[in-house]
Amino acid sequence: MLFFLVTILSLQAFVAHGQVENVFSYLQHNGNFTTLVKLLKESGLAGTLATSATPLTIFAPTDAAFAKLPQSVLDQLSTDPQALADTLKFHVTNGIIISPMIQDGTEFTSLSGKNLTAHRYANQKYVIQGVNIESGDKIVLNGVIHTIDSVLMPSDVSISEYLGTHETNFADLYAALVLEGFENALEFGTYTLFAPRDDAFAQILANLPTIAADDTYFKKVLMYHVVPGVWFSAGLTDGMSLPTLAGTNLTISVQGSGVYVKTAQVIEADVPLSNGCLHVIDDVLAPPK
Length: 289
Ligand SMILES: *[C@@H]1O[C@H](CO)[C@@H](O)[C@H](O)[C@H]1NC(C)=O
Ligand SMILES: *[C@@H]1O[C@H](CO)[C@@H](O)[C@H](O)[C@H]1NC(C)=O
Ligand SMILES: *[C@@H]1O[C@H](CO)[C@@H](O)[C@H](O)[C@H]1NC(C)=O
Known about the structure:
By secondary structure, this protein is of the alpha+beta class. It has 2 domains: about 1-150, Roll (FAS1 domain), CATH 2.30.180.10; about 160-280, FAS1 domain (Roll). About 35% of the residues lie in helices and about 25% in strands. It has 12 helices and 14 strands. Strands 2-1-7-6-5-4-3 form a 7-stranded mixed β-sheet. The radius of gyration is 21 Å and the shape is elongated. One 2-acetamido-2-deoxy-beta-D-glucopyranose (NAG) binds near residues 30, 31 and 32. One 2-acetamido-2-deoxy-beta-D-glucopyranose binds next to β3. GO terms for molecular function: cell adhesion molecule binding. InterPro entries: Adhesion/Biosynth-related, FAS1_dom_sf, FAS1_domain.
């Protein structure tokens, strides 16, 4: 059934454009993918996308998506052919994936061998590795193109490992989690962590000894930042209430492009991790006593 549908849609694409587009030629002619096209050529993957006889699906980052990458990452991609190939292959899967197949928690194995994880939320928004799909389901002769607004990054490390290896920002949070014996809990299970940076802890430094002296309350403070399940920002809506491990809920508010958790603002959203995701916030959240 699906193959039949795809065949029909491919024929329509053929009729509409009067020429046969393959995955690569579509990207090349579109105009929004000049960086991706250049990198695909450099890596040798262009040929696969042009001539593959079996269908492929690509999650294609736009030029704007590549422009968001730090220069250091772009430099690495241009000097390390293996890293470039792995990164590009992470965006491609064998077979046809169309949006109805992208459900909450669905995994797709990419050509790099690593899995891509999808999430779909009550508001019907869906993401792949936490990244928004701007427009999906463009069907061409040998595959499907989904346009995405960020470059996909693998989620190889757990929440705990991420904090432990980003100590320039999270030394205080990580130390607190280790102190309370929570770092193992954040290795397993699936969670969303709202992670206050060290400068957020610095703001409450005067109150910290009092908070930390009450061990039960301090545990509660930490657990108040952890929500079961994977809540990328696409799924966060204004007024939403999320249950935390502290037993009480956090309220989300969305004002313009700003996302707030209670009074704290999300300053870096959607870090994909092997057991969930993390959003960096600018304040430590205090649960009711
Ligand atoms: C290219 O991107 C712009 C801005 O997002 C969009 O308006 C336009 O439709 C895109 N072009 C194609 C051919 O998809
Ligand atoms: C990757 O996804 C496939 C399903 O597409 C699943 O069978 C496999 O267990 C996943 N691998 C890992 C390492 O999660
Ligand atoms: C906490 O959140 C859950 C899920 O959104 C909701 O069902 C529940 O009513 C909330 N509890 C409170 C006290 O707001």
